[in-house]
């Protein structure tokens, strides 16, 4: 097992110094699911909620959250991302899958940014719909794929 890089020899927390690394093109994709009552999903897709277009508000929230990841995760480097895309797919009458793709040319990856994007987008869906469905669940927040950097290419195989 690879050593945890966010701790020094004495076990103290540290932000990894990436100053000596060469910048490379890096891309990360992550996903999350929101499960809800079919009636709730119908209201979302027909844009029949008084708070507005749930998907577009969640998309903007995910993009904004991506840019704040370094402020939210204690040892995550604050970086200027080059691109963020969020896609929303209805997978069944009661389930939306959110997928984020984040890219950057930098010394460190954007896995945390992609997972933050889908997490906040999912939370936004919950927030906007909780008045009609408090039983919604957010699940399966996961890294799907990562490209670039020393550790190479990762693709989830399940």
Can you give a write-up of this model?
With 158 residues, the protein is an alpha+beta fold. The chain has helices spanning 38-45, 54-66, 69-72, 111-129, and strands at 24-35, 83-92, 95-106, 137-147, 154-155. Strand 4 and strand 5 form a beta hairpin. It is elongated and about 50 Å long.
Largest sheet, in brief, is: 5 strands, antiparallel
Shape: elongated
| Broad structural category | alpha+beta
Radius of gyration over alpha carbons?
17 Å
Q: From N to C, what is the helix and strand string?
A: EHHHEEHEE
Helix count equals 4
Beta-strand share of residues:
25-35%
**Strands, count:** 5
Helix content: 25-40%
> What's the mean pLDDT score?
93
Low-confidence stretches: none
Strand order of the largest sheet: 2-3-1-4-5
Distance between the termini: 21 Å
Question: What is the compact description of this entry?
Answer:
By secondary structure, this protein is an alpha+beta fold. The protein has helices spanning 38-45, 54-66, 69-72, 111-129; strands at residues 24-35, 83-92, 95-106, 137-147, 154-155.
Detail the topology: elements first, then pairings.
Blueprint (H helix, E strand, L loop, with lengths): L23 E12 L2 H8 L8 H13 L2 H4 L10 E10 L2 E12 L4 H19 L7 E11 L6 E2 L3
Antiparallel strand pairs: 1-3, 1-4, 2-3, 4-5
Helix pairs in contact: 2-4
């Amino acid at each position: 097992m690879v050593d945890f890089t966010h701790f020094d020899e004495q076990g103290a927390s540290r932000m990894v110094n990436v100053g000596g690394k060469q910048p490379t093109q890096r891309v990360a994709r992550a996903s999350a699911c929101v499960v809800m009552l079919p009636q709730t999903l119908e209201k979302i897709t027909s844009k029949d909620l008084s708070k507005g277009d749930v998907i577009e508000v969640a998309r903007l929230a995910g993009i904004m959250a991506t840019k704040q990841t370094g402020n939210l995760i204690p040892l995550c480097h604050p970086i200027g991302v080059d691109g963020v895309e969020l896609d929303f797919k209805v997978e069944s009458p009661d389930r939306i899958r959110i997928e984020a793709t984040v890219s950057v040319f930098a010394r460190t990856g954007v896995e945390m940014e992609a997972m933050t994007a889908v997490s906040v987008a999912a939370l936004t869906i919950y927030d906007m719909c909780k008045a009609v469905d408090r039983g919604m669940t957010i699940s399966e927040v996961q890294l799907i794929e990562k490209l670039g950097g020393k550790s190479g290419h990762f693709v989830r195989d399940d």
